[in-house]
Amino acid sequence: MSLFVHYLSLPYLIEGIWFTVAVTALGLAGGLILGLVLAAMQLSRFAVLAALARGYTVIFRGTPLILQMVFAYDALPQIGLKLSAIGAAGLALAANEAPFIAEMLRAGVLGVDGGQVLAGQALGMTPSLLMRRIIAPQAIRTMIPAFGNETVSALKNSSLASVISVQELTLRSTQLASSTFDFFSIFFASGLIYLVLTSLVSVIQLFVERALDLDRVTPQGRLSIFLPWRRVDLQTKLAEPAALLPPPHSLLPEMTAPRPTSRSDRAKHAAMVQRNNVAVEVTGLRKSYGAQTVLNGVDLTVRVGEVVALLGPSGSGKSTLLRCINHLENWDSGMVRVGGRRLGHSDDGRKLSPRAIANERASVGVGMVFQQFNLFSHLTARENVAGPLRWVHGLTRTDADRRARELLERVGLSHRADALPRHLSGGQQQRVAIARALAPNPSVLLLDEPTSALDPELVNEVLEVIRRLAVDDGLTMIISTHQIRFADEVADRVAFLSGGSIIEQGPAHEILSNPQHPATARFLSVMEADKAPESTS
User: Fold this and answer.
1) pTM score, two decimals?
2) Which of 159, 244, 427, 497 could form a disulfide with 316 if both were Cys (CB 3.0 to 4.6 A apart)?
3) CATH class of the domain at 2-216
4) For 437-488, how does the pLDDT look when each residue is reduced to its tens digit (9 = 90+)?
5) Cα separation of 213 and 19, whole Å?
6) pLDDT tens string 147-156
7) Strand order of the sheet with strand 477-480?
């Protein structure tokens, strides 16, 4: 036993530990940098870059690490690149680890819900901002266990550096055992040292996982200052004067009076709205997915302060039309103008870059509420609203936080401001999504089936919030919905889509009570028939 303890503290073996750690650190650091490059290439829109990255991955994942180390140490000097044994081992380990790390990074990025990316785009986030604020924070948390496992694997693989005479722990153990013939004690001591090193990696991994656990209700630790979603308690700062967020565009309602509710008053209101400026103009819009035509020459004009309800069966093109208005979808032909600006194109007609389109969305001011809520899952309700105000519109943390709390109070969720989306009901999540869309004072609000993903008992709470926005605020809105009664109560005008075309449109009550097109009549009768059992129960 004393001999075993002697080997554990033997300077000859301890020096081998430092060589082992050095090779591992070089391999992981280089592998992470190269892995980031490979992952970016594979996720790139350019097919050539993606093909090169995949070719590298096939080669270095498919050949043994020991051969790569021999190549780095013996072959590179033939082209004038002479490395030390540790440098060659670190380079080979980095080249070998890079494809595995790249796949981890790519899996983390692809694992982020696409709806959140879509929501970020709708809020005016540029691709780099999306990566930094939405995708990376969530991907990092999911990759920590895999990266911890890869670190342990790299630590053990560093023993192969002995083939090029790196005096790491395994080689020194072998040399010592050859001179003393005490193989068992020496290799048992060596194995215990490896176990201590790998256990240390596991402890660090658990610490990082704990530090990044969003569900832990703990005071802010030192690690939080490095996080993209750093949380700061602003309660003591909310007494400071607020900086009001300026309207992103001049399309705010030209009339501040609440929308009337009686039939006659609503008719007068609708006539008055028709004298307002055009908020949204869609002309000859066509969109196809392969052989399937989704939009077939759609024309739609929406005035400032007007509420238009889009009705139609599933697959008729309602959601695609809304996404085209916000340029979340490209279209084949036609034109979309918001506030007189042609979306997606510069003044000379050239298509804008993704970054320029994101800036355009932010400046034009088109808010959007999605079917599936699409809240950022790593942010609380308050942060979902305040974050885009800071990142996109440049508000200070204090002002953005104040604006978020005001809007959450308005939708009845001030008591859930610090809850993560997964701790909220569907109706609550959708109300947070509405508050987030309203935060930058949009000129137009698009709502894509805002109640379709909700349980029946949660529908009314969301509809009531939308009703107040339409009736009390006079907000310009385009709503895709199957809620016929709601459309009759709130909308100034109804447009019915079928087969990618608007086949009938007009005053809401007139169309819903006396449709002229047979397809509209059939759709409304089916919807009424579906609701009949509910009304009798």
Assistant:
1) 0.84
2) 497
3) mainly alpha
4) 999 999 899 999 988 878 877 888 888 888 888 777 778 999 998 888 888 8
5) 34
6) 999 999 999 8
7) 366-369, 444-448, 477-480, 307-311, 493-498, 501-507
